[in-house]
Amino acid sequence: MTVTGLGDSWTAREIWQQPTTWTAVADVVGHVRPQIEELLSAALFEASPRIVLTGAGTSAFIGEVVAPALARHLGRQVEAIATTEIVADPRAVVVDGRPVLLVSFARSGNSPESLAAAELLHRLTPVRHLVITCDPQGRLAQRWSGAENAVVVALPDEVNDRSFAMTSSFTGMALAVLLAFGLHVDVEALARAGTAVLGEAADRAAAIAGGKPDRLVYLGSGPLRGLAREAALKSLELTRGQVVGIAESSLGFRHGPKSVLDDRTTAVVFLSPDAYARAYDVDIARELVLALGPERVVVVGEADSAECGGAQVWPVPALGDPSAWALVAVIAAQTTALACSLALDLTPDNPFPGGEVNRVVQGVVIHEFPEGVS
Fold first, then answer.
1. Residue 62, CB half-sphere, CA atoms under 13 Å: how many?
2. pTM for this prediction
3. Which domain holds residue 321?
4. Are residues 181 and 192 in the same domain?
5. In this structure, what is the dihedral angle of CA atoms 57, 63, 66, 69, given to the nearest 10 degrees?
6. What is the pLDDT of residues 28-67, one digit of tens each?
7. CA 326, CA 229: separation in Å to the nearest integer?
8. Helix (H) or strand (E) segment spanning residue 41
9. Structural domain count, the chain
């Protein structure tokens, strides 16, 4: 089928609502700022806390996108470690006995790993805990609301995505943590940029889906590698794995992952707003054009097609820090995944009607961590 529009689904509505939700997210963070600042001040006053951003799937990729910006702002190392990794090996997070400032991201907060990761760390070392969630009634929010050394930031109901795949939940929580740590983000400029990108997103995404790719390769440098991972996941989720999403850094792609390229591959390169990193993104875009042809390479960002070897350009205005820019650039990946889903005659709100993959993960058994083990 040829995609002529991106339809009316929860998925589409939640993608398109994002610019308006960002202002509401900023308002929520502003309302609880005194509690956040008290928590962060106490945590950062400690000699050298380990700062860990955690979540699973899309929520884990939030940490990967924002960690570099937070590290630069704080002048401290910030680590993104998925809840799935913490649950499997919690001692790796507390190897040196330092206290932990844990930032948990969760759409619902009902996945077993979201709850278990925080519980394990609290058991093993002193922890201060900032929870950013889209569901105040979720188990994670309920567990830590009112707890000592913890603050729960519950985002507006509209960003608690009803669809299968997280879209506005992703950008809402990412924006919330940037604002919570005191980074300057021009939310109005962010919303204007998002609205501009959405103005032509349906046509651009439909054009990519019209090429009937079997594989979508997403590449980016620095925090945009985390963005690439989220983009690839959207493709897998919304197409039921029929359009395989692959993610890598712009430099790392040549070290083996480039083997994935074939004549049914479309490659998307996120061009970093950082001039130094951007040079590497442009290099790989040119190389991909030679391998795939210009019609199967898309660069997302501010660029001239000739500069990138003739690749297709999906314009996204620069917004300074790459971590903030990623919140707008992800719209290209979200709408592309939606367009590919529709092209395959799937239902994007429920691409797995048989329940093979679920909105809240199923089948996880949390095993007892041995007493006395540290």
1. 29
2. 0.94
3. 188-343
4. no
5. -150
6. 999 999 999 999 999 988 768 999 999 999 999 999 999 9
7. 12
8. helix 33-45
9. 2
